[in-house]
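Need residues for this backbone.
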């Protein structure tokens, strides 16, 4: 049974990686030039995405109006829905706030000139690719096998090895690094030299082709750690990257987007969708450019994972995040519901929004 589930997951991850590569390659073809990741991010924020992440465009022209008018407003189509959903209740418009002191303690695990330096949008932290995958405890940086990996911060290597049969994580070094053994293949974990609120911070890299460090090595930010591969439960080459807080195990992950600055010139939106104070799991959140309104893509709020859970930030208590957006004004909507917010994205900043009641 477990073996079958792993096999299914392998296939799913393979498809995921292929989809991600398809997106990237498609973007390259469209651009007709060697697109660097920053440019690709700009395309993400200004152009309609590829078919892999684009739901059908709503037919109706969407016009946001101030709350005072209480004008019924059509909603964008939820992903996987055959027709646009029209909500007759008024939209609630709220604006965001810049997060004053983001804990940007790490860089990206790949070099700035790597083919892809932004996380795969189809399988962001806490999401399930619309129910097809296990809840994701990290981010995927999809790049060819052999792409160098680098230390995201100063620290000490506490795990470096193959998890096929070994339990190398946890405080005693005897817990599985992933959901179980044989999950991340060749895996490396750095314990950051810098703690956060008196809690240890860990950065995990999974599926390496080659490991270039050993346990006990002291590394500086930017030091080489090894190469991207597809060991463990991954057929397509990528690095699975996690941030863990407090304890180095699968139950203590946090959203890496909140720990690394947006790529240069970009910003990010982090948000919380709740009802009666409880986070709503698996809701579809759609991102639009404002003025003129232009649908970009949609994501899920963090899904339920019975064990272990994916965690929100201790302070923000978020359940979704849009990484690496071009600066400007956006509209964030909960699909099928009246909640929406106008949000300004600024370079280098996280903008926090709260939706729901
Ligand atoms: Zn992953």
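Answer:
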């Amino acid at each position: 049974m477990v073996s079958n589930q792993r096999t299914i997951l392998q296939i799913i991850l393979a498809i995921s990686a292929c989809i991600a590569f398809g997106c990237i390659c498609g973007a390259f073809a469209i651009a007709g030039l060697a697109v660097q990741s920053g440019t690709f991010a700009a395309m993400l924020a200004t152009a309609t995405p590829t078919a892999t992440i684009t739901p059908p465009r709503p037919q109706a022209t969407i016009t946001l109006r101030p709350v005072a008018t209480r004008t019924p407003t059509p909603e964008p189509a939820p992903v996987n829905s055959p027709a646009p959903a029209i909500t007759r209740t008024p939209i609630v418009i709220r604006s965001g706030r810049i997060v004053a002191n983001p804990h940007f303690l790490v860089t990206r695990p790949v070099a700035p000139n790597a083919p892809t330096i932004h996380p795969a949008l189809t399988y962001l932290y806490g999401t399930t690719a619309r129910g097809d995958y296990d809840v994701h405890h990290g981010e995927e940086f999809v790049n060819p096998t052999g792409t160098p990996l680098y230390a995201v911060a100063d620290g000490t290597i506490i795990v470096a090895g193959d998890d096929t049969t070994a339990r190398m994580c946890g405080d005693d070094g005897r817990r599985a690094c992933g959901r179980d053994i044989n999950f991340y293949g060749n895996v490396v974990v750095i314990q950051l030299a810098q703690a956060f609120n008196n809690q240890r911070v860990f950065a995990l890299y999974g599926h390496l082709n080659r490991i270039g460090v050993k346990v006990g090595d002291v590394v500086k930010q930017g030091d080489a750690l090894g190469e991207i591969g597809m060991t463990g439960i991954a057929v397509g080459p990528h690095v699975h990257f996690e941030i863990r807080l407090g304890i180095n195990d699968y139950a203590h992950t946090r959203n890496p987007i909140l720990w690394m600055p947006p790529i240069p010139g970009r910003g990010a939106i982090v948000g919380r969708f709740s009802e009666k104070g409880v986070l709503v799991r698996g809701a579809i959140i759609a991102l639009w450019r404002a003025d003129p309104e232009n649908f970009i893509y949609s994501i899920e709020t963090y899904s339920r994972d019975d064990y272990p859970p994916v965690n929100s930030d201790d302070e923000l208590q978020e359940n979704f995040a849009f990484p690496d957006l071009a600066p400007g004004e956006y509209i964030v909507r909960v699909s099928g519901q009246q909640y929406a917010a106008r949000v300004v994205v600024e370079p280098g900043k996280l903008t926090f929004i709260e939706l729901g009641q």
